[in-house]
């Protein structure tokens, strides 16, 4: 497949490139060029409808790894308008498969996250208005972007799989400590990238609807978020496990 | 009450301000200059202190969420402008409102969110909106989404009014009847109801009302929730 990667040179993007390159022809785009790449690279700003639509020409699928978190104007440009541009590009070029990504707070902001357990993906989005009680529209601007994706799937023949992450860890430098526990939603960046690959493989007819959201977390015992849907539908099988984090360290 | 009305360049804002200024202090705002005898503050609803200054001291905000007619901006095309205004600017306005301790806002939305349902259905506030991807309809939907998140998580109560095409009875005389019509004076009355005087006992963070014209022959009375809850009582009929 010809696959367009948006925001392809950040933290997750290069892992997605690694996961996809044996199987697909890639067009990597971002506002920051990669240091070195074997693939076509184009400068594409998510805030530009023209650039996003032109970049999608000739593509069979789109994977959106772009995000801008802090800035109160650019966050909406990239995360909200960017989604509108991506979906308009998909419709313009008849692209049937889009993989969107974002933080778990796209769905489960404070009104769920501070309160509930056994959260599933098939719930109305409650992103809240800020990420960490501060002046940061990350989750709501991403959630608005995903809502745009959903509305497009209800109006056009296009499928969106939205993969939600939290605390993407580089398995070589996971930056946490044994016995100290972790946010109850965690995944390695290479398992997250593998989920993107699985999303490109899945038979669209097997999806329950044209807009499906997945929690992409490793197997985790806290009982707050579960990856059962990703396993069942995408065949997700996380390799990187972080058990040492939630087991107490024995006193010597 | 001190009331801020956004979208000041619109005819609805003009009608609202003239009526409400009889009993309230009105401040109008828009992203372009307008002529008015009332207090007017031009504001981009950006993320800066000017939006805080705009809402400071207000008891209530009527956010019509309408761009000025024929507005353009070199940096964005018109589809983007609409979506950007209805999402980011609504966010900035409500963020500032919460910071400045404004307790209530009324958001102007559209019944076009229900255009995809068949006409013979009893569509009301209990039905799920089905927005199209038209930037205005999608944008209004995303604006509602933004309001809901503020209502859910912050100390601000938000009432959403959805309505159709705003007309004056005298202007549509002789034209084929359109069930989407709402008479501007009835709509002004609906906003006045939503401001809260008649909402005794209704203490919800988020409420939605469909504001429709009176239709004496309808089996299913229009605007039933607004009539029963906020005392909406339309006076204008397009058909006898
Ligand atoms: N890193 C995490 O822990 C984490 C957690 C939860 C969810 N996620 C989600 O995973 C995805 C990837 O995140 P990441 O950690 O790789 O983010 P990142 O910030 O490392 O990378 C984002 C990329 O988007 C690009 N970008 C920014 N503005 C752009 C614009 N205007 N146009 C085009 N590209 C632009 C950046 O240059 C960057 O390469 C995002 O959807 C994010 O919300 C990440």
| End-to-end Cα distance of chain B | 37 Å
Structural class by SSE content of chain A: alpha/beta
- The portion of residues forming beta strands of chain A comes to 15-25%
- The computed structural class of chain B is alpha/beta
Number of strands of chain B: 9
Number of domains of chain A: 1
Largest interface, C-beta within 8 A: A-B, 30 and 27 residues
Mean pLDDT of chain A: 95
Please provide the ordered H/E string of secondary-structure elements of chain B.
Answer: EHEEHEHEHEEHEHEH
- Give a quick account of the main beta sheet of chain B: strands, pairing sense, barrel closure: 7 strands, parallel
Gyration radius of chain A (Cα, Å) is 18 Å
CATH topology of chain B: Rossmann fold
The CATH class of chain A, by name, is: Alpha Beta
List all distinct small molecules, including ions and cofactors, that are bound in this structure: nicotinamide-adenine-dinucleotide
Q: What percentage of amino acids of chain B are in beta strands?
A: 15-25%
Describe the overall structure:
The complex is a heterodimer of chains A (252) and B (240). Chain A has eight helices and nine strands. Chain A has 252 residues and is an alpha/beta fold. Chain A has one domain: NAD(P)-binding Rossmann-like Domain (Rossmann fold). In chain A, β1, α1 and β2 form a beta-alpha-beta unit. In chain A, α1 packs across α6, α2 packs across α3 and α3 packs parallel to α5. The longest helix of chain A is centred in the N-terminal third of the chain and has 19 residues. Chain A is globular and about 60 Å long. The N and C termini of chain A lie far apart (54 Å). The model of chain A has no long low-confidence stretch (mean pLDDT 95). In chain B, β7, α5 and β8 form a beta-alpha-beta unit. Chain B starts with a strand and ends in a 10-residue tail after the last helix. By secondary structure, chain B is of the alpha/beta class. In chain B, 47% of the residues are buried. Helix content of chain B is 35%, strand content 18%. In chain B, the strands form two sheets. A seven-stranded parallel beta sheet of chain B has the order 3-2-1-4-5-6-9, with helices on both faces. In chain B, strands 7-8 form a two-stranded parallel ribbon. Chain B has one domain: Rossmann fold (3-Layer(aba) Sandwich), CATH 3.40.50.720. At the A-B interface, α3 and α5 of A face α3 and α4 of B. The complex binds nicotinamide-adenine-dinucleotide. The site of nicotinamide-adenine-dinucleotide has 26 residues of chain A, from β5.
């Amino acid at each position: 497949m010809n696959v367009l990667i948006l925001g392809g040179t950040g933290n997750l993007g290069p892992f997605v490139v690694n996961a996809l390159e044996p199987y697909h022809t890639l067009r990597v785009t971002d506002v920051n060029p990669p240091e070195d790449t074997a693939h076509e690279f184009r400068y594409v700003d998510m805030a530009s409808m023209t650039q996003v639509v032109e970049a999608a020409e000739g593509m069979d699928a789109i994977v959106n790894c772009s995000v801008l978190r802090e800035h109160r104007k650019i966050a909406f440009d990239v995360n909200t308008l960017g989604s509108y541009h991506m979906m308009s590009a998909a419709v313009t070029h008849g692209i049937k498969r889009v993989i969107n990504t974002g933080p778990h707070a796209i769905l489960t902001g404070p009104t769920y996250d501070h309160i509930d357990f056994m959260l599933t993906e098939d719930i109305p989005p409650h992103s809240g208005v800020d990420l960490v009680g501060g002046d940061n529209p990350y989750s709501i601007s991403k959630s608005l972007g995903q809502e745009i994706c959903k509305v497009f799937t209800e109006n056009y023949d296009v499928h969106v799989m939205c993969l939600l992450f939290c605390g993407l860890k580089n398995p070589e430098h996971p930056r946490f400590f044994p016995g100290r526990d972790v946010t109850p939603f965690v995944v390695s960046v290479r398992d997250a990238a593998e989920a993107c690959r699985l999303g490109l493989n899945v038979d669209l007819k097997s999806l329950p609807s044209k807009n499906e959201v997945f929690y992409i977390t490793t197997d985790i015992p806290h009982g707050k978020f579960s990856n059962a849907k990703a396993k069942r539908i995408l065949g997700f099988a996380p390799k990187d496990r972080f058990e040492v984090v939630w087991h107490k360290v024995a006193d010597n | 009450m001190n009331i801020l009305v956004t979208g000041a360049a619109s005819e609805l804002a003009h009608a609202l301000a003239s009526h409400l200024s009889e009993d309230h202090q009105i401040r109008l705002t828009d992203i372009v200059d307008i002529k008015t005898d009332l207090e007017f503050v031009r504001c981009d609803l950006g993320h800066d202190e000017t939006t805080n200054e705009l809402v400071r001291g207000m008891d209530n905000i009527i956010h019509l969420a309408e761009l000025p007619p024929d507005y353009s901006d070199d940096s964005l095309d018109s589809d983007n402008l609409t979506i950007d205004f209805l999402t980011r600017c609504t966010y900035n306005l409500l963020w500032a409102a919460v910071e400045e301790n404004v307790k209530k806002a009324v958001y102007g939305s559209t019944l076009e969110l229900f255009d995809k349902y068949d006409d013979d259905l009893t569509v009301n506030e209990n039905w799920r909106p089905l927005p199209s991807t038209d930037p205005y309809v999608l944008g209004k939907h995303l604006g509602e989404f933004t309001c809901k998140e503020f209502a859910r998580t912050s100390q601000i109560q938000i009432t959403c009014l959805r309505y159709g095409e705003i007309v004056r009875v005298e202007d549509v005389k002789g034209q084929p009847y359109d069930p989407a019509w709402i008479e501007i004076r009835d709509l002004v009355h609906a906003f006045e109801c939503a401001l809260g005087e008649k909402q005794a006992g209704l203490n919800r963070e988020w409420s939605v009302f469909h504001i429709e014209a009176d239709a004496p022959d309808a089996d299913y009375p229009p605007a039933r929730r607004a009539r029963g809850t906020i005392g909406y009582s339309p006076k204008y009929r397009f058909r006898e």
